[in-house]
Specification:
The structure holds two protein chains of two kinds. Chain A is built from no helices and 27 strands. Chain A is mainly β. Chain A has a domain of 224 residues: YVTN repeat-like/Quinoprotein amine dehydrogenase (Methylamine Dehydrogenase, Chain H, 7 Propeller), CATH 2.130.10. Chain A has a five-stranded antiparallel beta sheet, with no helix packed on it. In chain A, strands 2-3-4-5 form a four-stranded antiparallel beta sheet, with no helix packed on it. Chain A starts with a strand and ends with a strand. Chain B has a five-stranded antiparallel beta sheet with strand order 1-2-3-5-4, with no helix packed on it. In chain B, helix 5 runs antiparallel to helix 6. Chain B is elongated, with a radius of gyration of 45 Å. Chain B is an alpha+beta fold. Among the domains of chain B are: 148 residues, Methylamine Dehydrogenase, Chain H; 151 residues, no CATH class; 159 residues, no CATH class. Chain B has 27 helices and 38 strands. The chains are: A mainly beta, B alpha+beta. Strand 27 of chain A pairs antiparallel with strand 28 of chain B.
Chain lengths: 326, 866
């Protein structure tokens, strides 16, 4: 069974919005409404604070670690419309680059697979998605997809790179496809593909009936097929699959929860999906050999306990959110 | 249902009161309390596993209009209660004790309704009371509860007749003559805001109560409250409108929210910034507005408001609610005296996976980690792969069975490893065509039988007539078997030993020793050794091992009769399926079958694939055999069953099979390892195979299993020398920038050194010569520990012209003399010296370098096997 081994106070003064572990699982980064990002060394099993990054002027929504081949690099985005890329040099953390070309809150950041270089996708409430890249000489280049999601983009996630690395590369293999998925307030999930240096819409996946809150492209280990998990205010988690050769995506509702689902994330090998929602639960899901998704464990984070049944005492529901104009 | 208000204790975490006609004190009990099951009737179920135990009732005070809880812990549970006539009573529960505050009363000049009471949270002697309008009287009265009534008991006493002894009638301050006041909130010490006269919101400072510091005219004068996380921010309501204010620009609201129904109560969440809760009349819903408003530079971003409705009490109309003063997001909601819920309103829970399958998530301001164990670990392929890698799975290329031992508990892999090790026997080697490669270990049954290249000389088998070897004097009809060189080879790949082979009996005895009597008997029968089969069965029957009585089976066998109409065969055919053991079923299926028709045996799913194939190899003519094996192979490939690797070998079809297996199980490790051990140049260039190998290497990297990753690279290099692994590091000279490792001139240089020193045979001496850059002749860097110049001959071992490791190994320098350095600070030295240094230190040996080399990419969390 699942057991909670530690519960640690991070020292944040307000809600934590994201927590991310680096590639090796040794460093934990958290970000909060208190405008700060905190880094912890978790390699010893304890949370030892390393750094407190301040630079955002509003709540920090999301974080993403780059592949370690680029060093210790962390991207953050926040309500202040900024994307900041942080880098550690000799133990101290500094801003490597600051991108502030969005007109509204930036909700999501995600680094591309390392094979594509240091490339970052950012989704914003202004409805656009930026793809920022660097060649390593200190120059940064940004491409913007305007009006990617009307009202706003809530989440972005890159497709894993399927290109074999140079070790066995026999040449004559085409450039790896650059693709990512995004979810937004228009209830849509969209897949984007780079074509001749321009980002074009590859797929529009319709299935959710309310804001899409999070998207996660499953890591692939030798599987040709593509799997995407999306979750929404409509309380559903949908698994989208594609056989890797055709352009056809099929959807399957993983589960309809009793409350909004905020967050989905895949385990490192893409075998287990962790889902967290407004019903106070972190649930773990696994696909059986027959293709059925089953809940393998249920963690009630409120008490730090494991329960087998769903709580029924709280039955919140959600209305459409709005942004007020003055 | 009468109206009920709720209040959390400001000091006790699990204590709250409800008030309406009386005041009730409750204590919330969690499930950890032992008397959980025997709660008295008066307890309320406030959550799934929480009960509010009723502790006390105070029913002495009538006509309660409002109540406020004293902000200090002592005196315990002190409440100020405002009555319909404007009188304020300080009260508590049970025995009043000797505290002088309890029992005090404060009486305004003229009796009128009390609208609110508010304790100053800092200077807790101040209690504000709001009153309805009465002539010239003030509507806001601030009482100082420490004021003793002797002071107030002067001339005032005579002017306003106070019936009860001890009433205090002189307030500390009075505000708003001829007005009415509907709401009030303290902030920043002595400051307060109040809604007055149904028209004004006014800010006062208690030090100068004569005139308001700020004032604004707006309809929303009810329920004014201050965000305690941001005291500039106020909220108030009026009718169905809620207004949010900033005291720094008080002339108009920052924004307003329009509700569908009249609002009855609003409150800021006490533990989070910018969360406003709104309750409407006759509604079961609480609406939470998460107001995200940041001022960046000089331009305001429009506030984003995320609203969320919660319905804590089902369909019941909400009566009151209260945020917990300390516990994050904890809310007490009341829909009536018996319907009170203690809930926690959760937000987005960020979850992060670590590579070793543990989860970390954040909850409010805290983080919690959780490690999966037991059931989850056993189920998940990634933890299993990690465990296997740590046990050396797929890294032992000398003894294949050692790999199989690691996965001994996974029966679906055993046949695969049996094939991988069997196929390495010399008889399965094909002549080496390119001359470059070492051995190829990719043979499957289909390759041996030449099923893949259809045209070139197909297999031709000869028919053999074989007699039964039964007891003396008994003869049975001759059986048809098929023989060819290819078939014999294929049989041995199935693990069978032919009856013509001298080891035949040993093989059967080995099976018996292994506890597989049924299989041994079946093989004996298939090779028409009736006598041997009977021996095996009777011998094993004497050892009592709890199995089916094999004696009875032997007896049944002995009665074998060939006549198809004979009772024996009919009984055999009908009763066969009752036998539990598949090999026994196969034996009787074989005996009961009509001549040359063996579907009963061939379709016996309980038999392992190798035995079924071996049987087919013995009894089926060429075309049928091809048909049967192709069908079986197709089926196994589709299912991704690794048993099928025996048939397909490491052919394109074998890669298809592995692909299905990986699709099904995600076990990329086994696929990668199989591909490395049995791959040919052709399959190694298959994109799927390279993807598996790279995925597996990436996984090992991510698990920080550096040693395992290196071992895997070494194994794949030694198994597949024709695919060169490019070096992953290069060493450049600090001065000329040329590589000192893969530089061809270095070979010549080395040769020249050899030639210059024809008498120097000691390799030790030779190594010491090469301490300078081969191209510019400048000295190489020094070892940080011994300060000797670096430089070993290790580089020359990677001789491109003699790619096999075996020839290279002779030239390899001892590892302890190799270059080693920190990838972060680039300081380094001899491997052995650095190992010694970092045994006791975690920082760089170079003076002045602050690099904590040892802690970078530390594998402490994932201890490697070595």
């Amino acid at each position: 069974m699942v057991s909670v081994i530690s519960s640690v106070d991070t020292g944040h003064e307000d809600m934590i919005h994201d927590a991310q572990l680096d590639y090796y699982g040794t460093k934990l980064a958290t970000c909060s409404s208190d405008r700060s990002i905190k880094l912890f060394d978790v390699s010893s099993g304890q949370q030892v604070p390393i750094a407190d990054l301040r630079g955002h002027e509003g709540p920090v929504w999301q974080l993403c670690w780059a592949h370690p081949m680029y060093g210790s690099v962390l991207a953050s985005c926040g309500y202040d419309r900024k994307v900041i890329i942080w880098k550690e040099t000799n133990g101290s953390w500094d801003k490597l680059y600051e991108y502030s070309n969005h007109d509204s809150s930036v909700n999501s950041v995600c680094f591309a697979p390392h094979e594509l270089g240091l490339v970052l996708a950012c989704g914003s409430s202004d409805g656009s998605i930026s793809v920022i890249s660097t060649t390593g000489d200190g120059n940064w280049d940004a491409k913007k997809i305007n009006n990617a999601h009307t009202i706003g983009c809530n989440a972005v996630s890159w497709a894993p790179s399927t290109s074999p690395n140079a070790l066995f590369d026999q040449g004559a293999r085409q450039q790896p496809a650059k693709r990512f998925v995004s979810g937004g307030c228009d209830n849509l999930v969209k897949i984007w593909r780079e074509e001749d240096g321009q980002w074009v819409e590859d797929q529009k996946l319709e299935g959710h009936s309310d804001w899409v809150r999070d998207v996660a492209w499953a890591p692939s280990i030798g599987l040709p097929r593509n799997v995407i998990a999306t979750c929404s205010q409509d309380c559903r988690v949908i698994i989208w699959t594609n056989d890797g050769t055709s352009n056809h995506w099929t959807s399957r509702v993983l589960n309809k929860f009793s409350d909004v689902v905020w967050h989905v994330s895949w385990s490192v090998t893409g075998n287990i999906l962790a889902v967290s929602g407004g019903d106070n639960k972190v649930t773990l899901w696994k696909e059986s050999v027959e293709g059925q998704w089953t809940c393998i464990s249920d963690v009630n984070k409120g008490q730090g306990q494991i329960t087998d049944q769903r709580s029924s005492s709280v039955e919140p529901n959600y209305n459409t959110r709005r942004r007020l104009d003055l | 249902m009468s109206r009920v208000e709720v209040l959390w204790s400001p000091t006790e975490d699990n204590t709250f009161i409800t008030y309406g006609s009386a005041i009730n004190l409750y204590q919330v009990d969690g499930p950890e309390n032992s008397h959980f099951s025997k709660h008295p009737e008066s307890s309320l179920k406030v959550a799934d596993q929480k009960y509010a135990v009723h502790c006390a009732t105070n029913s002495e005070i009538h006509f309660i209009k409002c109540a406020a809880w004293y902000p200090k812990p002592e005196p315990k549970n002190l409440l100020a209660v405002g009555q319909a006539n404007g009188r304020v009573v300080l009260t508590s529960f049970g025995d009043p004790g000797d505290d002088e505050l309890i029992g005090k009363e404060f009486v305004p000049r003229h009796s009128r309704q009390c609208n609110y009471l508010a304790w100053n949270p800092v200077e807790s002697n101040f209690l504000a009371e709001g009153l309805e309008k009465f002539r010239n009287d003030s509507c806001v009265v601030i009482w100082d509860v420490n004021m003793s009534h002797s002071i107030s008991e002067t001339s005032e006493r005579s002017r306003y007749s106070s019936s009860e002894h001890g009433s205090i009638t002189r307030p500390y301050a009075e505000i708003g003559a001829q007005d009415t006041s509907s709401s009030f909130a303290w902030f920043d010490g002595r400051n307060f805001v109040c809604g007055m006269n149904n028209r004004y919101l006014r800010l006062y400072d208690l030090r100068d109560p004569a005139k308001p510091r700020l004032s604004t005219q707006h309809r929303t004068v009810y329920g004014v409250c201050v965000d305690n996380q941001n005291s500039h921010r106020l909220a108030s309501f009026g009718e169905s409108q809620v207004a949010v204010w900033d005291t720094r620009s008080f002339d108009r609201p920052v924004f307003t929210l329009q509700e569908a129904k009249p609002v009855s109560k609003i409150s800021w969440c006490l533990t989070r910034s910018g969360v406003l809760t709104v309750m409407c009349k006759d509604s079961p819903i609480l609406r939470l507005y998460d107001i995200r408003h940041a001022v960046i530079g000089c331009d305001d971003i429009e506030p984003v408001i995320i609203d969320r409705n919660i319905q804590p009490c089902g369909e019941h109309v909400m009566s009151s609610f209260a945020w917990h003063p300390k516990d994050e997001n904890r809310l007490l909601a009341a829909a009536g005296p018996s319907c009170i819920k203690d809930i926690v309103v959760f937000e987005r829970i960020p979850v992060a996976w670590s590579p070793n399958s543990s989860l970390t998530w954040a909850n409010g301001k805290r983080t919690m980690s959780c490690v999966d164990s037991g059931q989850l670990n056993a189920q998940d392929i990634s933890t299993r792969m990690r465990h296997r890698a740590l046990s050396g799975y797929g890294m032992q290329c000398e003894d294949m069975q050692a790999n199989a031992i690691v996965v001994a508990d996974e029966p679906n892999l055993l046949a695969l490893w049996k094939w991988i090790s069997l196929v390495r026997q010399p008889q399965f080697q094909r002549p080496n065509q390119q001359g470059k490669r070492g051995a190829v270990y990719n043979m499957g049954i289909k390759q041996i039988l030449k099923f893949y290249n259809e045209q070139s000389n197909p297999m031709v088998s000869e028919l053999a007539y074989v007699n039964w070897q039964a007891t003396e004097g008994v003869t049975f009809a001759i059986k048809h078997q098929y023989r060819s060189a290819e078939r014999s080879l294929a049989l041995s790949l199935c693990g069978w030993v032919q009856d013509t082979h001298p080891d035949f009996n040993n093989h059967l005895n080995a099976l018996v020793d292994n506890g597989e009597e049924e299989k041994a008997a079946a093989i004996a029968i298939f090779f028409l050794k009736m006598k041997k089969a009977l021996e095996i069965l009777s011998a094993s029957a004497t050892t009592d091992n709890g199995k089916l009585n094999l004696n009875a089976v032997a007896m049944a066998l002995a009665g074998y009769n060939e006549n198809s109409n004979h009772l024996w065969r009919q009984t055999c055919a009908s009763q066969r399926s009752q036998l539990a053991d598949p090999y026994l079923r196969a034996i009787f299926g074989f005996l009961a079958s009509d001549s040359d028709y063996y579907e009963d045996v061939l379709n016996e799913e309980g038999l392992s694939v190798e035995d079924r194939v071996a049987f087919a190899l013995t009894y089926l003519p060429d075309t049928q055999l091809r048909d049967r094996i192709n069908r079986l192979a197709d089926d196994l490939v589709c299912k991704g069953d690794l048993d099928g690797m025996l048939l397909t070998g490491m052919s394109n079809e074998g890669v298809d099979l592995l692909e299905c297996y990986v699709d099904r199980t995600s076990d990329v490790q086994t696929a990668a390892v199989t591909a490395v051990f049995s791959g040919t140049a052709q399959t190694m260039s298959d994109e799927r195979v390279t993807t598996w190998i790279n995925s597996y290497r990436t996984l090992l990297d991510q698990w920080a299993l550096w040693h395992e990753r290196c071992k895997f690279d070494i194994v794949s290099q030694s198994c597949e020398p024709s695919v060169p692994h490019p070096p992953q590091v290069y060493i450049n000279c600090n001065f000329c920038g040329k590589s000192i490792t893969s530089n061809r001139t270095s070979f010549r240089l080395a040769d020249r050194f050899m030639q210059l020193n024809p008498f120097s045979r000691s390799p030790q001496q030779q190594r010491q010569k090469i301490t300078c850059c081969p191209s510019c002749r400048k000295a190489l860097p020094r070892c940080a520990v011994c300060l000797g110049t670096l430089g070993t001959a290790s580089a020359f071992s990677a001789n491109v012209e003699q790619p096999t490791l075996k020839s290279g190994q002779q030239k390899l320098t001892l590892l302890q003399d190799w270059f080693a350095w920190c990838q972060t600070c680039r300081h380094g030295g001899h491997a052995a010296h650095l190992t010694d240094w970092f045994r006791d230190h975690c920082d760089c040996p170079v003076t002045g370098c602050m690099c904590k080399c040892m802690t970078i990419d530390s594998t402490d969390v994932h201890p490697a096997s070595s």
